[in-house]
Design brief:
single chain, mainly alpha
Length: about 180
């Protein structure tokens, strides 16, 4: 069962990495628009047209939502919290890969090693070798899954922090006169 789950996790990690590379490409293309929007925000009274220039994604939706809630600080704060929750959910998926990959790799290593020791006691060296090959392959696959999860987690964590800082900045611009 550990090997089956590990194989499923490997496919999920590869699928997630594909989505992550697509996200890298989208962010590279849209990063200038986000920077320009943040720089223009203090000087523009109506952000509606500027928000529409942002690339599609969570940040644009959150900025639009924040702008629409400019009349109520509590609604705006709630929308910031919703954005943070969505980011946390994405990070939790990457953290799960980072942690479960090596755990399942270790389980997939130890189980065949037990069988290999049994084969050694019986004197069947070829069966022992096969079990050890399976054991070490599971170790490598588990570490590979963990590495993919770690790369995704680090990249997204940095992006989401930058976006959250930008949204906090916009929130403060909207409500700067109120206390």
């Amino acid at each position: 069962p550990a090997v089956t789950i590990e194989i499923f996790l490997l496919f999920w990690a590869l699928w997630s990495f594909g989505g992550f590379t697509r996200e890298i490409w989208q962010r590279l293309r849209g990063s200038r628009a986000v920077r320009d929007f943040i720089l223009l925000a203090p000087t523009v009274s109506d952000w509606s047209s500027e928000i529409e220039k942002l690339p599609e994604g969570q940040f644009k939706a959150a900025a639009r939502s924040l702008r629409e809630s400019h009349h109520d600080r509590r609604i705006a704060a709630h929308r910031l919290n919703l954005f943070e929750s969505v980011c946390q959910k994405e990070l939790d998926r990457a953290r799960m890969l980072t942690r479960l990959g090596p755990i399942l790799g270790l389980m997939g290593t130890l189980i065949p090693k037990g069988h290999a020791l049994g084969q050694l006691a019986l004197g069947d060296v070829s069966a022992m070798t096969r079990n050890l090959q399976v054991a070490f392959a599971n170790t490598v696959v588990g570490l590979f899954i963990g590495a993919i999860g770690f790369v995704i987690q680090q990249g997204r964590q940095r992006w989401y922090k930058q976006e959250m800082d930008a949204l906090d900045y916009l929130y403060n611009l909207i409500f700067e006169g109120e206390r």
